[in-house]
Amino acid sequence: MVKNKTNYIMRLLLLLLITTSSAIHAYPAAQYIGFGSGYTWTQANFNDEIRTLGAFTETPSYTSVDNSDLPWQGFLGFRFHPNYGIEVGYMSYGSIAFNKTLTSFDSSQSKVIASSVREADISTKGFFLQHVLSYPLTNAFILQGRAGILVGSTDYSELETLTTINENDESFVTVQPNNSSDGFIKGQLAFSALYQSSSNWFWRLQLNQIDIDNRGEKESFSHWFTSLSLEYQLQE
Fold first, then answer.
1. Which of 44, 128, 136, 169 would you label with 20, given CA atoms 20 to 30 Å apart?
2. pLDDT for 91-149, tens place per residue?
């Protein structure tokens, strides 16, 4: 199932690149490249609940939540018209890190019988293709609206420490890494403002947002990426 999904994503990405290349060769375009970095803030929703089965109760808790990071993006753009262009590139939204603890309590013995600490680092990144609509406010300032897709993945880097306690109150600790990746294709909306500092150089302030669901752990994340980029126009 994962292999089929990966093949589908790669075929779609190849089709997008071919389509973009054809449009570039068919119509003259001003070309530019750029790179930017910034700040990502992530809103996390932890929806796991207390579970009870007979005398056993499992309680989740979350600590050490680090919901900010320094993401980046690189891009290549083609302006077919002063008000329209296409941009392709690679974007990293950064990551969110936290610890999730599951505590198992046996009411018949009135004691904790196990605890599991999951140290998680979850990152999102991918290739994007965007249609760019531009509206010049002055000769130097331009507002832009962006719509396209992000073909990427959410990577889960996790370390689980499981502690079990037997009837003699002896503790046994097991440490196990759990790494996985979930590919996706998502629509993307973004807004940006350009400032032309010279004939070939532009500064760009941009806001991107993406939502990620980790249904297996009953978690969801909303990444907000504010970036400052520098563009260089290659040719008119």
1. 136
2. 999 999 999 999 999 998 888 999 999 999 999 999 999 999 999 999 899 999 999 99
Token reading at 155: 């990577």
Q: How far apart are alpha carbons 168 and 156 in whole angstroms?
A: 36
Residue 138 sits at φ, ψ, to 5 deg, of -140, -170
Whether 126 contacts 133, CB under 8 Å? no
Q: Which residue has the tokens 């904790």?
A: 112
Is the distance from CB of 196 to CB of 139 less than 8 angstroms?
Answer: yes
- For 182, the token pair is 């979930």
Q: Which of 102, 103, 106, 115 is nearest to 56 (CA)?
A: 106
Q: Using a cut of 0.90, tell me whether the model's pTM lies above it.
A: no
Provide the domain count of the chain: 1
Residues 30-56, buried b or exposed e (16+ Cβ, 10 A)? eebebebebebebeeebeeeeeeeeee
Distance CA 90, CA 146 (A): 15
The DSSP H or E segment spanning 206 is strand 201-214
CATH code of the domain covering residue 165: 2.40.160.20
